[in-house]
Structure formats: C-alpha cells, structure tokens
Amino acid sequence: MPNSIISPTANLSLARCNLGFVALRRCFQVGSTTLALCKSSMTSRVRVRCAAEDDAFYIRRCVELARTAIGCTSPNPMVGCVIVKDGKIVGEGFHPKAGQPHAEVFALKDAGILAENATAYVSLEPCNHYGRTPPCTEALINAKVKHVVVGMVDPNPIVASKGVERLRDSGIGVTVGVEEMLCRKLNEAYIHRMLTGRPFVTLRYTLSFNGSITNRLGKGADEPGGYFSQLLQEHDGIIIPGDQLTKISTLPTSHESGANQPFHVVIAKGVSSSLQLPGFIMKFASKIIVLADNEVKIQPEMQGVEVVILENITLSSILDYCGKRGMCSILLDFRGHSKSLSELLEGVLVENLVQKVVMEIYPFWRISDEYSSLPSGWKSLRLKNLESRTLSESVLVEGYI
User: Fold this and answer.
1) Which of 47, 226, 348, 386 could staple 353 via S-S, CB 3.0–4.6 A?
2) With contact defined as beta carbons under 8 Å apart, do 71 and 256 qualify?
C-alpha cells in the first residue's frame, strides 16, 4: 500500500460535530469514498483543532476511522488511532488490512515529531508482541507520547492487558475503558471469536407482514450501499445450503467498492457420491468451501473449490471449523424453503450459536402452499437492543439474542 498514512482532510472538519453513536450507525457511508481508503492514501492534509473536547470525543473519532477498513481486516480487529496535542489532532490512522501496520503506527507517522508529549487515543489496546508486525507499544514508547487512552482491553489472550502494563511500566500514563461499549460493538465479531473460538453468527431473513418468510431481497441488494451488500462486506463467510444451489442464479456477493468477498460455505449433508454445482459458481471457485459428511465428487470439476469432510454436520461443527479457519463472522441467509438450513437451525438457541438477527419486513401479504418458518424453538424468542430503519420498500429490524 503506497504511502499508507491516513491523514486528516478537509472533510474532517466534521470532527467538530458530535461523533457519537449516530456516527457509528451511519457506518461512515460505506461506498466509493470508504473502502477505497484501504488501498490508497488521502491528500489535502489539514490540522483540525477541536474546542474543549474530551477523551470520549477522540475515542469516537477512533471508531469512525476504524470503520473505514470494514471488511478488510479480518481476522484482525478494526482499530483507529488519533494523536492529540494541545487540543489539536496532529495525527490519525487506522489498521487497513491484516499483515499491514497497525493504526498506531500510521497515526504516529502522520504526527511526526508532534507525537512527543502528546496523548494517543486508540479504540483497542495496543499490542505488545511480535506477530506479522512489531508491537505497537514500542512504537508509542519510542515516539515519547505522554499518555494513552484506550477504548477497551484486547480480549486476545496474547494481548489481554499486557499492552497496558507495558506502557505503564515505561512511565506512560494509561486510561482504559473510554466509550467501551461503542468499541465493543465495533469489533463484536472479533471479540466473540476470541472468547468462544467460533464466529459471530447473524441470521437474516425477509418477512411479509403476515409473518411468512419469503425469498426476496430489498431494493439495492445488487447495488453498492444496499444493506444486503453491506452485510456481505461485513461477514467473512455465508452459509449456502446444498438444496438452494439449484434455486439461485448467482452467489451472494458484496457490491461495495474494494470489498473482500466472503467465503461461500456450501453444505452438502447426505450427498451420496457427487455434488452438482451450477456453472456460474466457477468464477467464485477460490472462495467456495464444500462441507460434506462423506466423500463427494464435485461436478463439473472446478479448480480451487475446497472440499472438507466433517464427521457430523451440524451448525455447531460448521462454526467450529470456520473458527479454526480464522473466520470471525458468518451470515446465515434464510431464504424460503430450505429444509437443510431449517435442520441446521434446530436447537441453536440452546447452544447460543446465533448472536444477531436481521429481518426485512415487506408491506405485502404472502400466501404460499410451501409455508416456511423458523424452527419451533424460536417462537418464544425475544430480541434485545433493537434498531430499525426504513428502506425504500421495507423496514429493516436488527436485534441481538
């Protein structure tokens, strides 16, 4: 990535406004002005002076910066960093991609000599170990910052408070837990995988207003900025039931600029000898993983398609496998009459396998001979932390289990 420093720009004068939870919900306007930043640097550098802002303000700015790399960093978390001196933002950066320098490195380079005796704000605890990149704690120490404000401690056991301890041992003051809930929501998938070893699972489906699950996606699903396109951008993998392959004409893909497409995890449970894949799958071959419970032959043969044998195919075993592959998030797209997906969803509430639900509600009455519904155990489910927004033809509701 040439000149990977993310510098303040003229547009960042908006930083004078409230960058609270509303800023997180609008997702930093994912599109051509967002993920392109994962690949190129910004120009027209200006220095933004913020009048009497507090620690929370700058951590919210870190979160906004971090979201610039949405869909690019997995299995790493999204992280943003701001360097502030005398009430003035003198450096900014975010982690653009796994294997590339972390947010602190970009922000310190952006600040240059102004980092000395400044305060560094970072949405996630700086690392203190050598991995694919050197430890960020040493970069902060060498830059001679005087204070570090951390949004949340990193749940990764390799890091977990060790970065904070290293900074304090070096004489740098450290404040932890500023806007912690906002920072946790930013990396909810990463945190879940660190704590459980499994990906964070989102269940998505579409309802008619009489409660029937339909096979429909909202307007904009095939365009940049559409909610479904953004969902795919945010998730590392999407589960495709084998019995749906003959009912679709293309695989779900994100249309966001620069999006890293999710893995398509095809479930071939009970397939006797061969699995017939539609021809359009060929261009997605390197992103397709077929999970089967016995030896199967892919027809037609496609180079790049990976076949993995699991002794017992359940949602639990699928998530265990995906977690070991480094996937932090999985999308379960429940569309219409999929018997195999309905079977996968049986008992998931008991095992806490699904964390989030996204439902799109349409203003039409649907009558079908093939009525599709979620398993009976979902009837008593009550979602929490609900959010809703109106789309052009429907209402989108999100909640947590």
Assistant:
1) 348
2) yes
10-186 architecture in CATH? Answer: 3-Layer(aba) Sandwich (3.40)
Please say whether the structural domain 194-400 has been given the CATH code 3.40.430.10.
yes
Identify the pLDDT of residue 277.
82
User: In Å, how far are 50, 116, 118, 144, 353 from 86, measured between CA atoms?
Assistant: 10, 12, 8, 15, 47
95-119 b/e with 16+ CB inside 10 Å = b?
A: bbbbebbbbbbbbbbbbeebbeebb
Q: Which of 224, 234, 237 is nearest to 267 (CA)?
A: 237
Half-sphere exposure of 106 (CA within 13 A, CB side): 29
Residues in the chain: 401
- Residue 358's H or E segment, with its range, is strand 356-362
Secondary structure class of 317 (helix, strand, coil):
helix
At 49-74, the pLDDT tens digits run 343 469 999 999 999 999 999 999 99
Sheet of strand 173-176, all strands in order from the earlier edge strand to the far edge:
48-49, 88-94, 80-85, 119-122, 147-150, 173-176
Domain definitions of the chain by residue range: 10-186, 194-400
DSSP 222-274: TSTT-HHHHHHHH-SEEEEEGGGGGG-SS-----STT--PPEEEEEETT--SE
The residue type found at 245 is L
Contact 96, 205 (CB under 8 A): no
The answer to whether the predicted template modeling score (pTM) of the entire model surpasses 0.85 is no
